[in-house]
């Protein structure tokens, strides 16, 4: 009897949560950066589109709490490999919206876990095993959005805490090669940006 009651209560909670939930779909542009970038350089990057990772996201908001995931990509020519490279940044996150996700003014915070990896642009698969290099990371972000009915825009600033570098590429002698997960400047060093600025737009269903 207790198990049946628990099952009924669980179903009721899910139904009520689904009825009050807000599904948000959107597009975004993210600039991975470090502390050496000036405000002018950041503005110029978004204006020109240089080093901006473009992608999309979805988030399910239930009151003040939300759960979501995003994927952003960036392509550049790597002089070391001599070909076009693809950088993929994917993450899953939980968010807290101070005035709920659909409020006109939407201050929010996020905590998430992601993977940043690079592979040849000609590679059509996106599993972690196919990355030449990849880094897992935690991140915390704060941002603010403005919503006009079903349409919203937002900006957020994130701090990335990189975990150990995962290397899947060995040289001809079997020695691991540490190539950067994100290396548009062709430094050839393992690197995950400490910060990320994201601008985006969303549709609230």
Q: Please bin the fraction of helical residues.
A: 10-25%
Q: What's the total number of strands?
A: 8
- Order of strands in the sheet with the most strands? 1-2-3-4-5-6-7-8
**How much strand content do the residues show?**
over 45%
The largest sheet, given as strand count, sense and whether it forms a barrel, is: 8 strands, antiparallel, barrel
Mean pLDDT: 78
Number of helices: 2
Q: Which radius of gyration do the C-alpha atoms yield? A: 20 Å
Structural class: mainly beta
Gross morphology is globular
How far apart are the first and last residues' alpha carbons, in Å?
38 Å
Extract low-pLDDT stretches.
Answer: 8-19
User: Could you give the order of the helices and strands?
Assistant: HEHEEEEEEE
Polypeptide structure, described:
This protein has helices spanning 2-20, 39-48; strands at residues 22-33, 53-62, 65-78, 83-97, 105-120, 133-148, 151-167, 195-204. It is mainly β. The protein has an 8-stranded antiparallel beta barrel with strand order 1-2-3-4-5-6-7-8. The model is unreliable at 8-19 (pLDDT under 50).
């Amino acid at each position: 009897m207790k198990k049946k009651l628990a099952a009924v209560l669980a179903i009721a909670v899910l139904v009520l949560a689904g009825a009050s939930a807000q599904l948000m779909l959107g597009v975004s542009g993210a600039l991975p950066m470090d502390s050496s970038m000036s405000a002018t350089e950041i503005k110029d990057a978004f204006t020109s589109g240089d080093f901006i990772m473009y992608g999309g996201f979805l988030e399910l908001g239930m009151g003040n709490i939300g759960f979501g995931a995003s994927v952003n990509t960036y392509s550049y020519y790597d002089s070391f490999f001599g070909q076009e490279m693809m950088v993929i940044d994917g993450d899953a996150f939980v968010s807290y919206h101070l005035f709920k996700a659909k409020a006109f003014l939407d201050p929010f915070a996020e905590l998430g876990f992601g993977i940043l990896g690079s592979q040849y642009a000609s590679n059509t698969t996106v599993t972690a095993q196919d990355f030449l290099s990849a880094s897992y990371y935690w991140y915390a972000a704060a941002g603010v959005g403005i919503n006009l009915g079903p349409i919203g825009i937002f900006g957020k600033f994130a701090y990335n805490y990189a975990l150990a570098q995962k290397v899947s590429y060995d040289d001809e002698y079997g020695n691991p090669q540490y190539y950067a997960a994100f290396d548009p400047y062709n430094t050839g060093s393992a690197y995950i940006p400490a910060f990320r600025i994201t601008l985006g737009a969303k549709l609230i269903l």
